[in-house]
Every structure is written in C-alpha cells, then in structure tokens.
C-alpha cells in the first residue's frame, strides 16, 4: 500500500465547476499535511497547508480528518489556470531536522473552457 | 531573484558515465533536500542535509553521493549512471523549526536527466 494515496484522475471539468480531491495516508504518526501544485514540467509549489480545523484560502478549502487519515481539497469556481497536478503531501517528521515529506502520486486537473 | 537554483537544467549522458548536479539556495534556509521524480511522476525524497550534516538517507544506491560544502549548497554526484537513473531530480530547501512541522519546502526548477 502506498503511504499517500490519491486518485490520479484526470479530472476534466468545465470552467466554474467545483471539484474535490481526496487523499488517504497510512502513517498515523504524520505530523503535518499539505497540498502542493505542480504545473507541467515545473517544480512543485505549496498551494496550502492543511490544519485539523480545516482551512480556506479564497476558492480553495482543505480538510483533514486525522481519525480516518483522510485529507481533501475543494476548488470552487474552477479557472483555466487551475489546470495542474495536485499533490497530497504528509510530513512524517517533527519539524526539526527530520522533516520528511511523503508525496502522493498526484491528481491531474484539466479545466476546460 | 531565483530562490532555489539548479544546474544543469537538462543532462543527457551515456550509461556508465559520472555526472553532477548542483543546487544553491539564497533563502537562508538551513535544510536542503534531493528528490527524484520518475517517469510516472512519483516524487520521492532521496537525501536531506541540515547545516551540512546528512540527516535523511533513503534507500538510494551508493552510486549517488550528496555533498554539502555549506548550508546554501547541496550537490548530487552520480557514478556509473544506469538507464533507470533517468528522471527529474529536484532540489529543495526549508528552514528547520522546533515549534512546528508546518514549514514549507521550496523547490528548484529540476534537472531532467536522460541516460542513454
């Protein structure tokens, strides 16, 4: 079983749609959680951190359920520029020198005009 | 200003050769990493260094040897290159903190290595 699992997609949605991505992780000792975005042939960039209480950043809402070891990302009012691969990431380190990010394989989103 | 830079951007070489990839960060971070992203786009950590000290060393062939001359640089040397080494190699950096594990890693643009 992969340490971080995501539906690889692709998700093809029209502009303006709402789309949700799900992710599960296997290590119950995971300390922190993130969504990264990776554009084609580019490096991953942090989209948002995911906190236990859930958090929102504009059109993006992230949720974390530690009991179920489940993370989600909701994108409202999709834009063409949202087209990318979304990577679910967990940190099994403690914030000290042992930070260790485990990446999911990513979910490809294609927003259609 | 480029925060995390890598050279070269592309590297095409023959099997059996030895090559190096260089990474530099100007963010003042104390921790640097090397990741490998394979043809299936799976991104996996290889090494991390904190203040020039090796912290994480995943199950990577010993043909791969990282070197950190100072905390702003982390280079990756690969001996006896094999076909399976073809991938995109990303360098990243972050700042260690003892109060939170929510510290962002900043990635370089990647080095696309092709072994023929």
What does this structure look like?
The complex is a heterodimer of chains A (113) and B (116). Chain A contains no helices and 11 strands. Chain A is mainly β and 113 residues long. In chain A, the strands form 2 sheets. In chain A, strands 2, 4, 5, 9, 10 and 11 form a 6-stranded mixed sheet that branches. Chain A has a 5-stranded antiparallel sheet with strand order 1-3-8-7-6, with no helix packed on it. Chain A is globular. The N and C termini of chain A lie far apart (36 Å). The model of chain A has no long low-confidence stretch (mean pLDDT 93). By secondary structure, chain B is an all-beta fold. In chain B, strands 2, 4, 5, 6, 9, 10 and 11 form a 7-stranded mixed sheet that branches. Chain B has a 4-stranded antiparallel sheet with strand order 1-3-8-7, with no helix packed on it. In chain B, strand 4 and strand 5 form a beta hairpin. The model of chain B has no long low-confidence stretch (mean pLDDT 92). The chains are: A mainly beta (113), B mainly beta (116). At the A-B interface, strand 5, strand 9 and strand 10 of A face strand 5 and strand 6 of B.
Features:
heterodimer; A: 113 residues; mainly beta; 6-stranded mixed beta sheet; globular; B: 116 residues; 7-stranded mixed beta sheet; 4-stranded antiparallel beta sheet; 54% strand
Shape of chain A: globular
| First-to-last CA distance of chain A | 36 Å
Largest sheet of chain B: 7 strands, mixed
Uncertain ranges of chain B: none
Strand content of chain B: over 45%
Mean pLDDT of chain B: 92
Q: Please bin the fraction of helical residues of chain A.
A: under 10%
Q: Structural class of the secondary structure composition of chain A?
A: mainly beta
Order of helices and strands of chain A: EEEEEEEEEEE
Name the shape of chain B in a single word.
Answer: globular
What is shown here, in short?
The complex is a heterodimer of chains A (113) and B (116). Chain A has 113 residues and is an all-beta fold. Helices cover 0% and strands 53% of the residues of chain A.
